[in-house]
Amino acid sequence: MDIFLTEDHRKLFKRVLALGKAMPKGDHESDSYAVDLVRWLAKNNLLAPLIGKGRISSRALCVTRHALAYHSSLADSMFAMQGLGSYPIALAGNAKQKKILNEVVAGKRVAAFALTEPDAGSDIVSMQTTAKRDKKFYIVNGRKTFISNAGIADHYILFAKTSPELGKKGVSAFILEANTPGLKIERQEVVSPHPIGELVMKNCRIPAENLLGSEGGGLRIALATLEVFRPTVGAAALGFAERALDETLSYTNTRKQFGQRLNEFQGTQFRLADMAAQLAAAKSLVYTAAHQIDTQGEEITLASSIGKMYATEAAQTIIDSAVQLHGGRGVLKDSITERLYRDIRSLRIYEGTTEIQKLVIARELIKKQNA
Q: φ, ψ for residue 183 (rounded to 5)?
């Protein structure tokens, strides 16, 4: 991956990887621990790249997520959510709204991104949440689901329809403060524990000044944000996969069966070779996409979707191999391999499922063919 990185990026990767060894320990199912990790990220100046001056650096985000995910899925998740919950403000916010970003980077404010609904996942335009203007407020009604940081966030970037009759041109974005009357949080439990839940809004009154950009500009903000962060999901997958490979190399070098180390069996060697090749290919694709985002800015959809799709699918396969080679130890609850097995699964779903990425890739290929 080094050929796609500057010296500064390489130094950042090594620094985050080293910092991860001294990461504070805690219960991954504890809200307070999740907040502690945000504070730790801020203390070590790891949140600054999320709102860098000018265009955000995709490679900086990718190397940070890659290194954080190697150590902790929760630390990676908290980093990513600080980005998703702040980049829309950096992208479309006014001067007053952008003051929030200083609090996010300082770890004084926990951010979240509220787009998905019970009946609107990949099909964003079918969202049912509405925001109707009433003088100095927007009255919001609806429900968002699978929202990371639900219950611990200080604000949510909320997407709702201000003009339902306009379809995709009727979606707007708002800064929803967590203490807004009419907002209720219902927590959810998922296979890889972290703060997540549903936002239920009933006559929720959001000040009109919390509108991001202009009415009808919400879908553009959402897609622009996801476009930048999509390769970073692949980068998190790299961290999981690389940890799985390292753990497996160590284990198979010491574990003996039938009088020899596991890594002396040809079958083990073949599987290790496959894991290494898949990881190398995934790194190349993820950092190709990040490099294109940073240096080209346009025409990056194809590379971004390929990187996200391949890296997450490859990581699932690599981690499955790690569990298999660890045998019974691979499925012991709270072992590294068992944790990685749970952690990787959601990456193939959020920010565009593998199936959606395939549709996007095919669409881009056809568009280029017919250009």
A: -100, 125
Q: Tokens for 289, please give them.
A: 């996409």
Question: Rounded CA gap, 182 and 133, in Å?
Answer: 16
Q: Pick from 242, 221, 211: which is nearest to 96 by CA?
A: 211
Catalytic residue among 117, 299, 351, 364: 351
Residues of the chain under the 70 pLDDT cut: 1, 52-55, 297-299
Q: Rounded to an integer, what distance in angstroms lies between the CA atom of residue 294 and that of residue 273?
A: 32
The contacts of residue 332 (CB under 8 Å, 6+ apart) are 338
Residue 298's pLDDT is 63
Backbone Cα Rg of the chain: 21
pLDDT tens-digit profile of 240-260?
999 999 999 999 999 999 999
What's CA 116's distance to the chain center, in Å?
A: 14
CB-based contact 278:318 (threshold 8 Å)? yes
What type of residue sits at position 134? D
* Domains in the chain, CATH or no CATH each: 2-105 (1.10.540.10), 111-216 (2.40.110.10), 220-369 (1.20.140.10)
Distance separating alpha carbons of residues 191 and 340, to the nearest angstrom: 11
Q: Give residue 228's pLDDT.
A: 85
129-to-182, 223, 241 alpha-carbon distances in Å: 14, 18, 37
Please tell me the distance from the alpha carbon of residue 125 to that of residue 168, in angstroms, as a whole number. 5
Residue 364 annotated to the active site: no
